C-alpha cells in the first residue's frame, strides 16, 4: 500500500523580516483534506505561516512541497488551487459580482459565470438579487468578509487558508463563514488551515492543532507558555511570582531565554495539594473552560491561576472521577525540570 | 480697474470673433501640452510603478533625485533643452529648435518627474492586502500589475492632472525653446507674457480665460470619468 502524499511538507523553514526571525519550522506536514487549527497570540507568526502556505511569499530559507512537488510563488501548478482569506480582506473597487468573478475571469472560465456567482453568494448566505450589483463600499464588514469568502469558494480550491476569518464580523456572518468553510471540505475535499482565537470552534473541527509562539511551532497543539520576568532563586532555579503570591519554580535555562514552555502532558490535576519535594510546583486555581477535542475525544481544560492560564488535556474518566466542571477549584502539579526554554 | 473690465469684454470678442492669432496660440498650446503629456505618462507611469512597487538597492537615492527634479525651474529645463537642440548642440541636426516638438520635449522633461513621483507614491500606498488578495485569487504577475494600476486609477489620474496643470501654465520652456513665433510656436502663456509687456491687457486676459477654460474642461472630464 502506498502512503498518500501530504498536501504540504515544509522542511527547514526559516523566515526573516529584515534581521528578525519570525518563523522557524524544522519539519511539518499537513495532510490532504484535513483541518488544521493554528493557535497562537498576535504576532506569533500565524499570518506569516499562512502567507508561506499560500505561496504569496517565499521563505527566506527552506523548502515547501505541495503534493510532493517543490513549489514557489506564482508557479502555474498551484495558482488558483490555494487561496487565502485574511481577517480584513481587500475587496476590489468593483461590484460584488466582479469581485467574486475575478478569479474565474483570470482563469478565463467565463462559462455560466452568473450561475456560479449566484451559487457562491448563496453559499455564504447572500442573496444574488440584492448584492450582485452593489459596490465594495456599500457592504458592512460582515458582508464584505462573506463576499471575500465567496470569491475564494467559487474557485473550488484544493486548499483554503483562513487567517482569523471571523475575528471582526457579526455572529451571523461568523456562523455562515464557518459553515461555508466546512462545506468546502465536505463537498470538495478542500484542505483547511485555520488561524483563529476561537478555540472552541478550532478544537471542535480540527484534525490537528498547531500552536505558534514567537515563530516556533508546536505540533502537539496549544502548549503553556510562561513569559518573564523571572527572578533568580538560587544557582539552578528561576522563579516567577504570580499576582496572588503563588510561585512557579523552573530550572535555569542553559542560555538566556525569555519564555518557557510547560507541555500540557507534563501537568497533572488534583483536588488537594500533596506534600512533595521543592522541585514540584503545586498551583491552586480554578477551571475556567473545558473544550471537547474532536479527534481524540479528550477535553482541553483551561485553569486560571490568578493572572496566568494553563491548559492540560483530560480524559473523560478523570473528569468523572474528580467531578471536574468549570469554576471548580483544582490543584495543578508539574516538576520544575519539566520546562523547555525558547 | 476699467482696463480689467475692458480686457474681459475684449477677451469675449476675440474668442467669439475667432481671432486668428488667439486661436493659433490656443491650438499650439493644446498640441504641445497633449503631446508632452502622452510622452510623460507613457514613460512616467511604468517608471513610477517600478519605483513604487519594487524594493531595490539605490531606490532611496533615485527617489531623492526624482523629488529634486520636481522642483526643476522651467527656465533651467528650457536652457538645457536649448543647449541640446541648438545648432551647436548634440541634437542640433534634428532641427528641433523653435518648433512645437522642441517645446513638447522640454515639457515632457517637466512633467515626467511629476507623473513618476505621484504614481510611485500612489503605488507605495496601495493596501498591502491587495497583492495578497490577488495572489490568493490566482493572479499572475501581469494581472497583479494591471489590477494594481486599475485599483489606483484615481491616484494616477491625479498625477496626470497635476502634470497637465504644470505643463499648461509653464512659460520658460515655451519661450526659450519655442521662441514665441507668432502663428507658429506662440503658446497661450508666451502670448500672455508678450501681450502684457506690450500693455495689451485685453489680449492677455482673453488668453488667460482660455487657459482657465481648458483646465476646467480637463478637470470636468476627469470628474465625469471618476463617476463612471
Describe this structure in a few short sentences.
The complex is a heterodimer of chains A (342) and B (228). Helix content of chain A is 23%, strand content 34%.
List the helices and strands and how they pair.
The complex is a heterodimer of chains A (342) and B (228).
Chain A: E1 8-17, E2 20-30, E3 35-39, H1 46-53, E4 61-66, E5 69-70, E6 82-85, H2 96-106, H3 113-123, H4 128-131, H5 141-153, E7 159-163, H6 171-188, E8 191-195, H7 199-205, E9 208-213, E10 216-218, E11 224-227, E12 231-232, E13 237-241, E14 247-251, E15 259-262, E16 268-270, E17 280-292, E18 299-305, E19 308-314, H8 316-322, E20 329-335, E21 340-341
Parallel strand pairs in A: 3-8, 3-9, 6-7, 7-8
Antiparallel strand pairs in A: 1-2, 1-4, 4-5, 9-10, 11-15, 12-13, 13-14, 15-21, 16-20, 17-18, 17-20, 18-19
Chain B: H1 2-16, H2 20-53, H3 59-69, H4 74-85, H5 100-124, H6 128-136, H7 141-151, H8 153-169, H9 172-178, H10 188-198, H11 201-227
Helix pairs in contact in B: 1-11, 2-5, 2-8, 3-5, 4-5, 4-9, 5-8, 5-9, 6-7, 8-11, 10-11
User: How many strands appear in the DSSP assignment of chain A?
Assistant: 21
Radius of gyration of chain B: 20 Å
Structural class of chain B, please? mainly alpha
Largest sheet of chain A: 6 strands, mixed
Strand content of chain B: under 5%
- CATH C-level of the largest domain in chain A: Alpha Beta
Net shape of chain B: globular
- CATH fold-level name of chain B: MetI-like fold
What would you say this structure looks like, in words?
With 342 residues, chain A is α+β, with helices and mostly antiparallel strands. Chain A has helices at 46-53, 96-106, 113-123, 128-131, 141-153, 171-188, 199-205, 316-322; strands at 8-17, 20-30, 35-39, 61-66, 69-70, 82-85, 159-163, 191-195, 208-213, 216-218, 224-227, 231-232, 237-241, 247-251, 259-262, 268-270, 280-292, 299-305, 308-314, 329-335, 340-341. Chain A has two domains: 8-218, Rossmann fold (3-Layer(aba) Sandwich); 224-341, OB fold (Dihydrolipoamide Acetyltransferase, E2P). In chain A, helix 2 crosses helix 3 (113-123), helix 3 (113-123) packs across helix 5 and helix 5 runs parallel beside helix 6. The longest helix of chain B has 34 residues, at 20-53. The radius of gyration of chain B is 20 Å and the shape is globular. The mean pLDDT of chain B is 89. Chain B starts with a helix and ends with a helix. Chain B has eleven helices and no strands. The A-B interface holds A 51, 54-56, 73-74, 76, 79-80, 82-86, 88-90, 92-93, 102-103, 106-107, 148, 151-152, 155, 161 and B 127, 129-133, 135-141, 143, 147, 151.
